[in-house]
């Protein structure tokens, strides 16, 4: 292979990443180079090919018609090469490669964060990329290997692997709050309380607290002095006695056990399907993704209702 051929090949591989990310900054982060160096590489490629491949603006990058045509030819070749490399990893019984996961912030904290040390130690040749997104993503269009979301949110045409057991919600407040405000006896009494709201980042709407008892379902639109789109902030506010919070039980169990928070309306909070890792059924699972699934999968005997 000539020097020019080697240079073209590396530049073309970089071009596919820029075209997919539509950003020199994000593409440079994936490739491990500086954005300025990557931009210079793209200019040199365009000069050698004598055609503009990328349309640049101050905010983003998009492909020209010529660039889109080239990308259409390059993408299958790049995927075939990536598959060949992963197959080599399988032969060596040492999974390697890049795994891209989309997850909600809660799922990332509950499912992924606890296994990161052991996963990184066991599979040092796997690069795990986790992108936090509040809404459901089209993992095929956005080129994710898999996503992690609540089971009730998933489409029926995906392969879903449980990564937690059933979950429950919990209404919690600090001892100081309950000393000044008697605990609600039923969900309707929440209207008499200062509740900490959660604004869903994807929809922009306030989340309504959901309850069920003896097959009776209630949805309560609560009010209060604080609204956040981050559950960590909600927990902090509840600890400071600023109101009642509505959170997944596992997020606050240590605080409840320590006496920093107390529960209310526990008999109105039944279990519901927990988090699942999902991916398209028609997609071949790479060794790297298979290793990640095996790491986060919940054993069958652990999937018990609470």
Calculate Rg over CA atoms: 24 Å
Annotated CATH homologous superfamily of the largest domain: Periplasmic binding protein-like II
What is the succession of H and E elements? HHHEEHEHHEEEEHEEEEHEHEEH
Oligomeric state of the chains present here: single chain
CATH architecture of the largest domain: 3-Layer(aba) Sandwich
Secondary structure tally: strands:
14
State the name of the first-level CATH class of the largest domain.
Answer: Alpha Beta
In terms of DSSP E residues, the strand content is 15-25%
Q: Tell me the distance between the termini.
A: 62 Å
> Regions with pLDDT < 50 over 5+ consecutive residues?
300-306
Rough outline: elongated
Question: How would you classify the helix and strand content by structural class?
Answer: alpha/beta
- Helical residue percent band: 25-40%
Strand order of the largest sheet: 4-3-5-14-6
Provide a count of the helices.
10
Give the total of domains: 3
CATH topology of the largest domain: D-Maltodextrin-Binding Protein, domain 2
Question: Outline of this structure?
Answer:
The chain is of the alpha/beta class. It has 3 domains: 3-75, Winged helix-like DNA-binding domain superfamily/Winged helix DNA-binding domain (Arc Repressor Mutant, subunit A), CATH 1.10.10; 94-165 and 274-302, 3-Layer(aba) Sandwich (D-Maltodextrin-Binding Protein, domain 2), CATH 3.40.190; 169-268, D-Maltodextrin-Binding Protein, domain 2.
């Amino acid at each position: 292979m000539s020097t020019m051929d080697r240079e073209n090949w590396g530049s073309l591989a970089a071009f596919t990443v820029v075209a997919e990310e539509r950003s020199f900054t994000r593409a440079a982060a994936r490739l491990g180079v500086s954005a300025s160096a990557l931009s210079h590489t793209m200019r040199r490629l365009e000069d050698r090919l004598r055609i503009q491949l990328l349309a640049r603006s101050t905010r983003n990058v998009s492909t020209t018609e010529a660039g889109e045509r080239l990308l259409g030819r390059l993408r299958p070749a790049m995927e075939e090469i990536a598959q060949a490399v992963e197959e080599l990893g399988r032969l060596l019984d040492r999974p390697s490669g890049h795994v891209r996961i989309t997850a909600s912030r809660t799922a990332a904290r509950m499912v992924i964060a606890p296994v990161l040390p052991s996963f990184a130690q066991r599979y040092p040749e796997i690069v795990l990329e986790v992108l936090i997104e509040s809404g459901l993503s089209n993992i095929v269009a956005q080129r994710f290997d898999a996503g992690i979301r609540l089971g009730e949110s998933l489409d029926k045409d995906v392969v879903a692997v449980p990564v937690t057991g059933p979950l429950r919600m919990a209404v919690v407040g600090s001892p100081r709050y309950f000393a000044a405000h008697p605990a609600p006896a039923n969900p309707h009494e929440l209207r008499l309380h200062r509740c900490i709201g959660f604004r869903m980042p994807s929809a922009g709407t306030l989340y309504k607290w959901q309850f069920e008892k003896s097959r009776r379902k209630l949805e309560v639109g609560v009010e209060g002095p604080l609204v956040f789109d981050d559950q960590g902030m909600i927990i902090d506010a509840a600890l400071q006695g600023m109101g009642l919070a509505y959170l997944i039980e596992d997020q606050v169990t240590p605080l409840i056990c320590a006496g920093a928070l107390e529960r209310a309306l526990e008999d109105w909070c039944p279990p519901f399907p927990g988090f699942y890792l999902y991916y398209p059924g028609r997609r071949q699972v790479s060794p790297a993704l298979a290793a990640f699934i095996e790491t986060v999968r919940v054993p069958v005997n652990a999937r018990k209702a609470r």
